[in-house]
Design a protein that fits this description.
5-stranded antiparallel sheet, CotS-like, alpha+beta, Phosphorylase Kinase, domain 1, Aminoglycoside phosphotransferase domain-containing protein, Aminoglycoside_PTrfase, Kinase-like_dom_sf
Length: 310
């Protein structure tokens, strides 16, 4: 849709008048109104996810969350063809960067605040997510289909080691009582953000969280598993430095460590790289992956020793 037609659609369906419109991604725009107000306009494919987010945001107290706002005519979202558009305030700030200690700490503090604010919120028919290790198993299946890249550039040993390690730790994780943990989280009405990548934290005068498309009623432990995995590369896979963040209680430590030992982040970033069709060569990416994988071995060793002691 051309910009002029798109502006006309926004006004007709939402009474939203735009003076400026800048693409952020193919499905996200930053817009400005005649009153100099700035918003983020985002396209979605699934209305059920939007309804859950709206129900959630309307019950959330003033928080670290950047929620949706209604269009000027009062609509929660507007539809064009099979897609749905939402509006949220634009936060003028910088994305956090997990390479810096201050930003890692800020993300952890903000995430904890979100979990506290979200606790006990109820929505009608909350969307149920599959158990995380089942999703990770599917990711491993997709990863296996990329073996030809590793063979082409001489990294078959790396490929086999990643697959073997991932399978081993997925099997161990699958034996833990996750359904009981999910049941307890359901009773306590815990919520997770679902994607704690650094770009979903924006620092202004405070730090805010954005993009709640993966919001779900799940154990908060799941967000800390993902956050730990995302911190690790910036800690040079130093297990002791990761433990120092005290993301989880001692009672949850065994679960957390076992889940973090599954190198699903390696699979995720590799699949993202292939999907982007990056200008960086596959050979250079795999060379870096191999160096980082070797560094990761010390983390595996220390984490396994810790598990034996608890």
């Amino acid at each position: 849709m051309r910009i002029d037609r798109f502006s006309s659609f926004l006004y007709q369906k939402g009474r939203l008048d735009c003076t400026e419109m800048k693409p952020v991604k193919s499905h996200v725009f930053r817009i400005k109104t005649p009153k100099e107000e700035e918003y983020i306009l985002k396209k979605h494919a699934k209305p059920k996810i939007l309804e859950q987010q709206w129900d959630f945001f309307e019950q959330l107290p003033a928080s670290v969350v950047v929620p949706f706002v209604r269009f000027p005519n009062g609509r929660k979202y507007i539809k064009h063809n099979q897609y749905f558009w939402t509006l949220a305030p634009f936060i003028d700030g910088d994305k956090l960067n997990y390479a810096t200690a201050d930003d890692r700490q800020a993300a952890l503090v903000t995430l904890r605040q979100f979990h506290q604010d979200a606790k006990s919120i109820t929505v009608q028919n909350p969307i149920k997510q599959q158990l995380f290790y089942i999703r990770w198993s599917r990711r491993l299946s997709t990863f296996k289909k990329t073996e030809h890249h590793f063979l082409k550039y001489g990294f078959e040993t790396l490929f086999r080691d990643i697959v073997r390690t991932t399978k081993l730790h997925l099997e161990l994780v699958s034996q833990l009582p996750w359904r009981e943990i999910e049941q307890r989280a359901e009773e306590k009405m815990e919520w997770v953000h679902g994607d704690v990548a650094s770009h979903n934290f924006i620092r202004n005068s405070s730090v805010y969280m954005i993009d709640f498309d993966l919001l779900s009623r799940s154990p908060v432990l799941y967000d800390y598993i993902q956050l730990g995995q995302r911190f690790l590369p910036y800690l040079n896979w130093d297990f002791d430095k990761l433990l120092a963040y005290q993301m989880v209680s001692e009672r949850q430590l065994k679960l957390w460590i076992n889940a973090i030992l599954v190198p699903t982040d390696v699979l995720r970033e590799w699949l993202h790289f292939l999907k982007r069709g990056s200008a960086n060569s596959v050979y250079h990416y795999l060379s870096r992956m191999e160096r980082e994988w070797l560094m990761r071995h010390s983390f595996f060793k220390k984490a396994k020793l810790m598990l034996k002691s608890i």
